[in-house]
Amino acid sequence: MLELKLHPNLVECGTDEAGRGCLAGPVTAAAIILPDDFSNAILNDSKQLSEAKRKSLRPLLEDCSIAYGVTHIFMEEIDNINILNASILAMQRSIEQLDPIPEHILVDGNRFKSYQDIPHTCIIKGDGKYLPIAAASVLAKTYRDDFMEKIHEEFPMYNWKKNKGYPTAEHRDAIRTYGITKYHRKSFRLLPEQLTLDFK
User: Fold this and answer.
1) Where are the extended beta strands (E) located within 56-119?
2) pLDDT tens figures, 70-79
3) Could you tell me which of 4, 1, 17, 12 has the C-alpha nearest to residue 136?
């Protein structure tokens, strides 16, 4: 069973990101505050759920949450500040959208930068331990998937509606064949054999 809170007496949010390891598209984060009486038998780490279950959970989470926020950090900013900083910034910008302001932040993973002096706790594999982090992981994943399916229409040869920008063999073969797009992260090693690529 996933826990609802680490600090039962505080207004606590969970935050998580999706798409950190992708070659194309944004890194997307979400933050959410769940009510104290929240329970759900299906909710878990988004990676453990089917796409259908994630999609069915999203409106339920949005409707019952006290507050939630979702943020995309796009390719140019990822390339400028690096993916770790972009992931943290996406989480911080999602927390910024919350009203009320949380008194404690549950963060998935082991890296975060203090936001507005609000205490935070980093929890490795937290999306499989705490409901607010699992909820944030579902929101981040579904909003990012929606974006990748939308840009798939623009560049169908990369099959982003299926691989969502992750470094699958199919995605890398398409990069070899067609080159890169405005949605690719130029600071990433897009091909295994790549040492340096001239993007000018």
Assistant:
1) 67-73, 104-108
2) 999 999 999 9
3) 17
